[in-house]
Amino acid sequence: MDLVVIGLGYVGLPLVREACRAGLRVGGLDRDPRVVAGLKAGLSHVDDVSAAEVEEMLAAGFRPSVDEDVLDGARTVVICVPTPLSEEGGPDLTAVRGAAETVARHLEPGTLVVLESTTYPGTTDEVVRPILETSGLAAGEEFHLAFSPERIDPGNPVYGVRNTPKIVGGLTPACASAAAAFYGKFVDEVVQAKGTREAEMAKLLENTYRHVNIALVNEMAVFCHELGIDLWDAIDCAATKPFGFQAFRPGPGVGGHCIPIDPNYLSYKVRSLGYPFRFVELAQEINDRMPRYVVERAQQLLNQQGRALKGAKVLLLGVTYKADIADQRESPARPVARRLARLGAELRFHDPYVADWRVDGAEVPRVGPPPVVRPGGGQRPGAEPSPWDPELVAALEDADLVIVLADHAAYEASLLSRHARLLFDTRGRTRGARSESVELL
User: Fold this and answer.
1) How much is the average pLDDT of 61-66?
2) What is the pTM of this model?
3) Which of 20, 175, 224, 258 is the catalytic position?
4) Distance, CA of 72 to CA of 200 (rounded, Å)
5) CA–CA distance from 349 to each of 50, 315, 324, 377, 395 (Å)?
6) Nearest CA to 63 among 34, 92, 24, 29?
């Protein structure tokens, strides 16, 4: 194999697709037999990779496997395994260590090993390198080692692996050159960092920047509501400035792996030096309290209508962490629903990408036809609801309160504003169809 990718999820599978398109012979290693079986059958469990694309990958020689022997003779190995938060607040490197140990058992002279899993600065050199060197080979001398941060944006129709600049940081200049040459086969632009730590920091800097700015507008949303200021309009006005400003918009919280998780890796590393990273910790505090604020606003809206939240019928629209994908990782919809349920609300949900949804072990009733479930756990939408979808219209009209938590394209502003008796829009989906029954975050 020219390449073996360890971890065939949201990061690894798009990487495999681009490498196959470039004519590379690609293998994949994943510990989940359902994922591997689905891929072998030509099915995808990832939003950004279609079943047709998986078929093309297989036709090009892609070999997904649960057997680590797929690593034998691999010229390049890329590790794309998850790094969730540990109980201590830092990255849980269990999967990274396991992948590195697996690679070490099959490592050969001249192999390029690249870590793409997001982590704190120093991981490649301090954690991965010693494990790989248990093979008896020396990093930077007998095999190449590099870090290259993943930049996958699920659901982005414009930027993917090929046209997003790829950062690489090598343990040595020769390692960096090897990594740049590899990615240059299927990525339009490769940027070389000074070293592995700089490449690791670049990823955390990107996501910390977003995390802090989202927290800024979320906090502004709270006091702008009290001041009677339309923050959405103010942001649009500020965004007309052609320099010095980037628009971020408020929401019910932050979700996905990158924003709520990755900045904590940097905070963890800084705390190891003996002092806090106050910007990150404050941003985390602000964004974490947004679900509670959403519920407080919902309660106020019902009170204004002479209704209590307890016993009220509340319909949640969109439970994924962002628009038009099935990914529910760290979605703020779950803490919103949890608090609403604890306060006695009768919940239902609608999402064209989610077949079933549970909060604290309890199933939340679903409205509308379910999506098609893919092997491995992913979903694709069923029939997109039209403005006259009877099930959605009936649910909107029946609910005491409708809360938009994910701005899926299926949620037409006119449909929502016309049929919801009371609508709380946390995503600005209905800005162009404002009415007395619509309230924005």
Assistant:
1) 97
2) 0.89
3) 258
4) 28
5) 26, 5, 16, 19, 9
6) 29
